[in-house]
Structure formats: C-alpha cells, structure tokens
Amino acid sequence: MSPFDLTRIGAGLAAATAVGTLGDALAGTGACVVQAPPGTGKTTLVPPALANITGGKVVVTAPRRVAVRAAARRLAQLDGSEVGDRVGFTVRGEHHAGSRVQFVTPGVLLRRLLADPELRGVDAVALDEVHERQLDTDLLVGMLTELHQLRDDLVLTAMSATIDADTFAGLIGGPVVSTEAVTHPLDVRYVPGGTRLGARGVEWTFLDHVARVSVDAVAELGHSALVFVPGAREVDRVVATVSDLAPRVPVLPLHGQLSSAAQDAALTPSDRPRIVVATSIAESSLTVPGVRIVVDSGLARAPRRDASRGMTGLVTTTCAASSADQRAGRAGREGPGTVLRCYEPRVYSSMQPHITPEIATSDLTQAALQLASWGTPRGGGLPLVDAPPTAAITGAEDVLRRLGAVDDDGSATPFGRRLAGIPAGPRLARALLLTVPLLGERAARTVALLADQPRGDITAQARAERGRLGRETTRLMRLARGAEPGTGYPTTHPEGLVTALAHPEQVARRTGGDWLLASGTRATLPGGTGLDDAEWLAVAEVTRTTAREGRTGAVIRAAARLDEETALAVVGVSETVTATLEGGRIRARKVRRAGAIELSSTPTSVDRRHASEAIAEGLRTEGLGVFTFSAAATDLRDRLAWLHTHVGDPWPSVAEEDLLANLDAWLAPDLEHIARGTPPGKIDMHAALRRLLPWPEAAQLDELVPRRLTVPSGHSHAVDYSGEKPVVACKLQECFGLAESPRITGVPVLFHLLSPAGRPLAVTDDLASFWSGPYSGVRADMRGRYPKHPWPEDPWSATATARTKRRM
Question: Which of 758, 728, 759 is nearest to 742 (CA)?
Fold first, then answer.
C-alpha cells in the first residue's frame, strides 16, 4: 500500500511540525497525545501520518456525524482520491469503506469494540476532540487504554485542542506532542444586548440583538460570520431575523438536527460574505471556510439528569471559558479576525474554566450496559478520566436489570450483549427485538426514528420520513433477525407500541389539560402536534421546560397515539387498597393503577393490615392524639415512663416515638376492632397499655410506683409521676408530724402543701426543714384567714387532720 503524501496533505498546516515528531513520540509506548489548537490541521494530518507509521489501517473518531463526513471528505480531497477508496467514513445510516483511514463517530467504534474486543484489522486509533468530554469518547479512552495494554501492536493517539492534554497522556501512558496555534490577531469586542436568560429561557429580544450584531459586522467588515447560539430553536430564530434584516446576505443554519445536505451546505466555501448560525457543533471539530467574524451569545446547552422525575433535559447555561476561547479562535484561522461577544466582560471572567464532563450529568443507562459488556460493571478498574457518579450508575444498572440486560452482579447477560450491539440504546434495542417479529419493518422504522430526531406525532413523522429512514430500517431489521416476539401486546397502534415498550414509564394519560405519565411526572403537550384529541400517549421524549412552554415543569416533545388496552398491557395494572383515618374513622378504597396513573377507585372493607397502616399514617401525622387517653390510661403511662427511667429493664419505654414504632406489641387486638368500624377514640387505652407490662415483674407495679400515697391524716392521695419527681398534693394539716418525705424508687416525694381552700402554700421534699423554718411564716399568714383550721405552734406533735378544729 502506497503511503500518504504528507507534504502535499500538510501544506500550510501548523500541525505538520508535530507530525514530524510523531514517530519518535510513539516509539516508546505506542501511545501519545497530540495537543493542537483548532485550525492547526491535526484532524486532517495525524490520521494519514499514523497510517504511514503503522503501515496499516487507522480508525479516527470525531464527536459528531457532520464532523466525521467533513473530515473524511477533506482528507480524501487532499489525497487526490475518492471517499470510499483510501479514506472512508461510517456514521449511523451511512457507510463508505476506506482501506487506510476510516472516520467514525465514537458510538460506532464503541459497538465495534464490544463486538470485537481485539479490534482485529485495526493498527491505530486516533480519538479526536477528547477535551469535549463526551460520554462515548470518555468510555473509549478507558477501553482502548486497556486494549492497548494487551495489544503491543496497537497505536493509540488522543487529540486535544486544550491544555488538559497531560490528563489524557497520564491515562493512556504516552508523551504529549504539541503544536503551536496559528496566531492571527483577534479584535475582541463586547457588545452586550440586555438579559440573555429569563424565566422563559433564552430571551427572543437577546437573539434579535445577536442577529443585528451579525448583520452589522458583515456589512462593516465585509467577511463571513460564524454565529454561536445554544440550540436548534435559537438557530432558527436568528436565521429568520437575519433574513428579515438583510435579505441579500446569505444565511445558513448549522446544527445536528439538519439533513446531511443542509449541514454540508454550511461547510461549502463561498465567494460571497455570508452568515452561518451554529450551535456548539462548530466550536472545535469543524472548519467553516471564509469566516473572519465570530459572534458569540456566550450560551451553551448541556444535558442535565433530573433523577427525581426520571428524565434528562437540555439546560441552557453560560458556556465555559474554554468554549468561549475556542469560538473566538474560529475568527482567526484564515487571517486577522473580529470577535463580538454579546455579553459583558464580567460574564467572561466568571465563566467556569472547562466544560462539565457528560459522564457527570447524563443518563448513564447505555454507558452502564457498554461497561458491563466490556467486563467492567460500573466502570470498576477501567482507566476513566472521571468515574461515573455512584447514584447515576446505580440507577442505570437498576434499569438494565429490569430489562434483563445485566444480572445481580451487574455483568451483562447474553440478552444484554445483544442489546449493546444495536445502535439504538438498550431501551430501544429491547423494543426492537420484541416488536420486529410482530410488526416487521414498521417496528424497525419506528426505532430508527426514535434513535434519531423524533418530534411531534411519531406515527406521522415515520410515515413522512420513510425514505430517509430506509437504510437504517433495513439495518435494524437485519440486527433483529431471529428475535423472539413479545407476547400479549395488541398491535392496533404499531408506533405507539414500540415507543411504549421502549419507555413504559412514559406512557401517559390525559388528565384535564395536562398529561400524567406512569412515572408520576405531569407534562404539557404543545399545540400543533395533532395529538390533542388522544386519551393515551406513548411518549418518546419529555424534557424539563420553561414557563414559555407549560406550567407543569415538563413538556412532551415526541409521542405516538396509544389505546388503553395496549397501554395497560405494557405498563401493567396493579390493585392496591389504601386506608386513611378520616374524622376518627378508618375508610378504605381499592385503587387500580397503571404505574402512577389511577384507573379507578372504589370504597372497600378494611382488613387488619390496612387498618394498621391507616392508624400508623394517622399517628405519623397526628401522633397519639388520634386516641383518647382516660385519666387511668394517662396515669399508667406516666408510671411506666417513671419505671423505665428510674429502674430500667424490663420496664418498657412509653415515649411517643417508641409506642408508634411498636404498635403491634400493645395495640394489635384493638386494630381488629378499628378495622370493623370502632372509632380510634373509643379504644380503651388503659387496657392497651397494660399489654406492655412485663411479667412477672408487673405484680410489683403498685409496690414500686403506688397510685396513691397515705399521709399521716390517714387519707390517701394520688401520686403524679409526670414530672422529674413524684408529686403528692394535700392539705398542709394532713402532714403534721411527718418529718421526712417518703421515697419512691429512691426519689423523695415532692409535696404540694395546700391551704384549706386548696390553694398552694409550699412545695417541698424536705418536710423537716419546712416545719423548722418556713412553716412559722405560713402559720402567721394563714391562722387569721382560716381560723377554723388548726395552725399549731408545734407541727411536730400536732394531730394530722383534714378536718376543722370543731369537727376534730
């Protein structure tokens, strides 16, 4: 095989200097990192250089399909060959073989690795744009590093546009080869345009400002402009506004949802100044020819996982400083450029330095299956740049276990390995295998659409895009060959069935003006989908939303009609009895549900278990106040509490939290009565609490903590155990002659000594001190007020009595 002409290919490219040292860098470990800023030509020149060094085939990953196609076509053009000859590319739905260099997306290489872990027939791999920290690329870094350690003949190169190259070099075990940036001067200006983000998302007035800045810059400077906004919707808004402001200036969109032809049009050189409005797709992996002006909104859209609602949404935020710098660098690739930042300088200075890795914020279900299929469940032992978050990877593994894709240990099952080989994610792959035997091409076409760009009514979209989806439909049919059909599923709504089986938790039912998903999330359906009259939907995509789109916090982006029979067959129906404590009575209802969707609710009788649950719930919200404690019950509870504190075992705790946690030990028989209709307030709590008495120790209860105490007058009085000391309240005269307070469980009784009218005169647990001192003052105050009662000078020898002097 003839080598590539690197002199011809690298003419004028700054990366040519690095390529000259590439062979020496690889001589030691067979691995290295090429650090080169955007525009230096590393994507064009490093792959053919690796092919020359190894004499074999090179596989190159680029993070997006548009970048894969563009890189392959550019290299083939410089090589003087046709795409599909020495240089080829593979993306979803399109394959052109290349005998020496093959450009692919990271997902394509991941599936190839899982199918052929030795990567036979490949002599070198180059991972481009690793600094973007895409999830698939991060996984490839770990897996290929492991494979490189086993295959001495495999050359591994990572290419990064930023200075974090040392991190990747440390992982793959090779040196860093650096290339200086092409240094054309940049004129950076700040042209803020008011509020960028509001409660309703990106402000349209701000996007209109971006459009005006772009039009004015092209008119002033006479060069093409590359405009960065966060998403496809914002691209469309700016394109429309530019067209209105300057009808004669060509304006082209560039984002991942466009057709290949539309994407290629934005990358085709033009003699006329034009405006290309792009998402972050154009930050580093693509070259837009002719650009000398960059207009930057300073915004980016990144995935964020909402674990509580089980969905991933794209959130608009201020971009990272590294992204802002790369966007600015696009203006200086071909000569001196101008950068117009539509925000204030302080915004730039407060940006986070680097992009947040996708592994930290994304749904990890597919990644978890790929890791399990590689033999490293949860990424354990794999040399990853960042380990997956524990909660996210555990949740993803739970989903895979429900799909039958992993076993209890997290290892991939044979079914899981088959799912991993299908380019559609584990949920869609499972739906494909279950429905192709039932629905044929229609099932495969639906999966092809769901894996790509589903929007609005999926059934209508699949019908309208049948031609575009044809190649991928054929491939998915081939991959599903021999699958066992799912059983018990109606086929009335084919697209709905496929979508529901992929996302059973997103089957939704209309509830008023909104939709309730089986997961419990409530969502809004935008107008214009043609699905407004449906009662059931199989939702393919639901995302977090802004106030502009709905009041529920979530919006349905794509869905298919579904009938109730199919919905219930997919989600399943559960029947539960729920009992509640209402107005002092237990009321129960039998509820049929499909997930969180209530189908029916009817009154039913209460059994003991549900009565117990209702009482427990009532107790959690209202405490023991749902019961009526008589004086005897309160007294017993206080005495038991005293013994638990002052004696300990075996006397039980009767604190509220302990009684609530141990209902069956003391309330079980009464729950039967409650279940039969007895109001909780009618339960004899004294009898219930007596079930807590320990035997045989309970025989000493009255001896240890007597209910009443006899004083010298011969009368007995109740003992109150609710405080820190046992308390007895009685008339002062009844304690004449009592020199020392009796003790209960070693604690002296606290006497509340009362007047003949029952008013407090003194509180003491030291009667000797009281008679010797304070009593004389009490006597002086009281003898004139209560002359009929005895107030002797000597309380020690006086007769204790509760009577008047005459009755004595």
Answer: 728
